[in-house]
Amino acid sequence: MTRGVRSAEGQVMSGYSKEEIRRVTSAYDFSATLTAAMEIHPMMRRALRRDVATPEDYVHAAAIVAMKYRFAAFAGWPFQLEWMKKYLTAEFPKKQMVVNFPYGTDPLDVALGQMKWGLDRGAEEIDSVVPVQFAQSGDFAAVGRYAKALQDAARPYGVQVKSIIRIGDLMKTEDDARTLSKVIGAAKAVATAGGAFVKTCTGFADGKATVRIVSAIKEAVAGTPTKVKASGGITCIGDALALLDAGADRLAGKWPIVLELEALGV
Fold first, then answer.
1. Mean pLDDT of all residues in 230-249
2. d(CA 266, CA 263)
3. Domains of the chain, residue spans
4. I want to staple 102 with a disulfide (CB 3.0 to 4.6 A). Which of 121, 154, 202, 237 is the partner?
5. Could you say which of 94, 148, 182, 199 is catalytic?
6. What is 47-111 written as a DSSP string?
7. What's the chain's Rg over C-alpha atoms?
8. Closest by Cα among 224, 157, 154 to 189
9. Which helix (H) or strand (E) covers residue 230, if one does?
């Protein structure tokens, strides 16, 4: 829930410090266009100052918003990469491309080929799903091999890969110790393999990042350079700050955070 309150004149006054706001925006990966069909938000029309009529418009409008807040990254599909390069003209947000997304059903050589295609064309970050069936069955060595192959192939480009473990497919509830152990096992496997990030979810109904889960993943990767990206169900700045406090290094989401920033006059 936002800490914002209204003044007597009806203006929203932020209850967050500038440092807290910047802490969120500098960690936020904006995924507004990472949708199957175009889901045109009213803020897109306002940003573009006209109707959003084409897939290129869709990326352009979201890019204007992302650049306004200097988000960490802008996530998009491979076919959107050329438009991302065209409209994301500042250092931030970084141009982030998804691979083997959102279900993680591609063989490793297919995922590697798709990733190389993007890296050769200027993708600056990669988010890739690790096939969830490996972790479901307890084959954490296979999780590690998949994550390692992608990170090793991206390293010559100076690019970090975020390995998505789809926690919602691994867990019944966060109180289920047996299924939570699969999340921890997958996170450890990615870290041991030298993966740059463990990411919780794709945002496609495959789970929700919670303080408990992020804390568990952070503990699992402790002592390694591997970082944590929280994705799924982040609906407000308060959620985002709580997840950062729990150990997340990056966040992912669509419009709720942006709407709150706008309401707070940021």
1. 97
2. 8
3. 73-251
4. 202
5. 199
6. HHTS---SHHHHHHHHHHHHHHHT-SEEEE-GGGHHHHHHH--SSSSEEEEEESTTT--S-HHHH
7. 18
8. 224
9. strand 227-231
CA angle, 67 as apex, 66 and 68 as ends, to 5°?
90
Q: Which of 95, 148, 227, 229 is catalytic?
A: 229
Six token digits for residue 183: 């999340």
Structure tokens at 133: 């069936």
Residue 150 has pLDDT above 60, yes or no: yes
The answer to whether 254 is a known catalytic residue is: no
Respond yes or no: is residue 18 known to be catalytic.
no
User: If you search the block for the tokens 């307890």, which residue do you land on?
Assistant: 138
Q: Is the per-residue pLDDT at 148 higher than 70?
A: yes
Among the listed residues 29, 57, 127, 206, the single catalytic one is 127
Q: Which CATH code for domain 73-251?
A: 3.20.20.70
What are φ and ψ of residue 6, in 5° steps?
A: -100, 140
Residue keyed to tokens 């936020």: 28
